[in-house]
Amino acid sequence: MSGLHASGCKELIEVAGCSMLERTIRELEQAGIENIVVVSSPAKPAIDAALEGRGVHIVHQSEPTGLVDAVACARPLIGDGPMLIALPDGLFPDLNPSAALLRTWQGMTTLVTVRTESPWGELLHDTGRVTSMEDNRILDLADKRKDQPFPLGEHRITGRYVWTADFWEFADKGEVEALRVLASQGILRACPVNTAYVDVGNPEGYSYAQSILNR
Question: Which pTM does this prediction carry?
Answer without folding.
Answer: 0.93
